[in-house]
């Protein structure tokens, strides 16, 4: 069995980004908005901050109390949209249910929507137009590419139907000629689908939902889920699959670090698009070719 080492691959991607960014004078800036005091979000935001610092990006964090008026949050996003120095904006999810997530997310300028969650970004993805692709599916596609995992003709089964992970991944897999099945909490006889998967992606958030009896021998498993118990992190897939599958992403150290690396990548893409910054390497290449 091969462990799909998202931690190692993300470190390589971050180093490449760091090197590429050295050629630019201005520093890209990512702004993160949090609402309330979700403990897991604090850890994720801190990881994002550390990753930004590592590659040389600036990181702004705006935390709003859960008693804050929604219009104030929207006003802040509008300010950030206008601020030419800010290149990427994300709303860290989840947010307290009293807020209208869709309205807040869709206030973000699609050019700065580095989580790829606005209606415009998601619509563009469906229509195969150039857009910022949500970070987790983008990270999973990078894992497929790096490990030469061919999607064409494969049956990909995705458990979960979120806009954040599963639906954009569905589109990406379809665009790469896979046959895709989506399962969710109302799916009857889940294992009849998971057992037929050449590639099984599980994005639910329930510790060990999937075990060895539910997978096909030598299948490839992407475990997206994260659950916390007694300060330990667990995936959605029981480790008893390890001697039965051909490849698997570990939890932690699989999809999680790739998500963060893709956030940096999207912010850098957004930065280049917004500023029309001329890449020194491009200038050198043009000079060489004269
Ligand atoms: P989500 O919005 O939390 O929704 C979970 C999905 O799982 C829903 O579609 C739900 O179905 C489905 N589900 C729940 N119980 C099920 C069951 N017993 N059988 C089959 N499906 C079931 O999804 P998400 O935002 O994609 O997050 C999923 C997990 O991935 C969470 O643990 C999250 O923390 C983790 N995550 C990890 C990363 C990373 O970088 N590693 C990034 C994002 C998310 P219904 O739609 O019918 O309710």
Q: If you had to describe this structure to a student in words, what would you say it looks like?
A:
- This protein has 290 residues and is of the alpha/beta class.
- It contains ten helices and eleven strands.
- It has a six-stranded parallel beta sheet with strand order 1-11-8-7-5-6.
- Helix 2 packs across helix 9.
- The longest helix is centred in the last third of the chain and has 21 residues.
- Bound molecules: NADP nicotinamide-adenine-dinucleotide phosphate (NAP).
Beta-strand level of the residues, as a percent range?
15-25%
Distinct helical segment count: 10
The CATH topology name of the largest domain reads: Rossmann fold
Count all strands and give the number.
11
> How would you sum up the major sheet?
6 strands, parallel
Keywords:
290 residues, alpha/beta, Rossmann fold, 2 domains, six-stranded parallel β-sheet, three-stranded parallel β-sheet, globular, disordered C terminus, binds NADP nicotinamide-adenine-dinucleotide phosphate
Summarize this, please?
The chain is of the alpha/beta class. It is built from 10 helices and 11 strands.
Please describe the topology of this protein.
Elements: E1 2-3, H1 6-21, E2 29-35, H2 39-55, E3 58-64, H3 70-82, E4 88-91, H4 101-105, H5 119-126, H6 135-146, E5 155-159, H7 166-175, E6 179-183, H8 190-194, E7 199-202, E8 220-223, E9 227-229, E10 232-234, E11 247-248, H9 255-275, H10 280-289
Parallel strand pairs: 1-11, 2-3, 2-4, 5-6, 5-7, 7-8, 8-11
Antiparallel strand pairs: 9-10
Helix pairs in contact: 1-9, 2-9, 6-7, 6-9
The structure holds NADP nicotinamide-adenine-dinucleotide phosphate (NAP).
């Amino acid at each position: 069995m091969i462990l799909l080492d998202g931690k190692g691959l993300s470190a390589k991607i971050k180093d490449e980004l760091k090197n590429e960014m050295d050629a630019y004078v201005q520093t890209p800036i990512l702004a993160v908005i949090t609402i309330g005091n979700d403990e897991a979000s604090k850890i994720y935001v801190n990881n994002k901050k550390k990753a930004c610092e590592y590659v040389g990006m600036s990181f702004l964090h705006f935390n709003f109390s859960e008693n804050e008026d929604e219009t104030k949050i929207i006003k802040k996003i509008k300010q950030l949209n206008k601020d030419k120095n800010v290149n990427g904006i994300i709303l860290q999810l989840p947010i307290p249910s009293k807020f209208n997530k869709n309205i807040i997310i869709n206030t973000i300028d699609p050019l700065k929507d580095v989580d790829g969650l606005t209606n415009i970004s998601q619509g563009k993805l469906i229509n195969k137009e150039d857009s910022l692709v949500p970070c987790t599916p983008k990270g999973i596609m990078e894992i497929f590419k790096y490990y030469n995992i061919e999607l064409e003709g494969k049956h990909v089964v995705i458990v979960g139907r979120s806009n954040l992970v599963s639906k954009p991944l569905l589109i990406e897999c379809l665009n790469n000629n896979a046959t895709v099945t989506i399962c969710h909490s109302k799916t009857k006889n889940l294992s009849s689908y998971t057992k037929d998967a050449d590639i099984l992606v599980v994005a639910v958030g329930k510790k060990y939902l999937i075990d060895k009896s539910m997978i096909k021998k030598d299948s490839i498993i992407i475990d997206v889920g994260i659950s916390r118990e007694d300060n330990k992190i667990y995936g959605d897939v029981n480790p008893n699959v390890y001697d039965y599958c051909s490849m698997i992403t570990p939890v932690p150290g699989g999809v999680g670090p790739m998500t963060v690396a893709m956030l940096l990548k999207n912010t850098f893409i957004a930065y280049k698009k917004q500023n029309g910054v001329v890449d020194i390497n491009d200038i050198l290449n043009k000079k060489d070719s004269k």
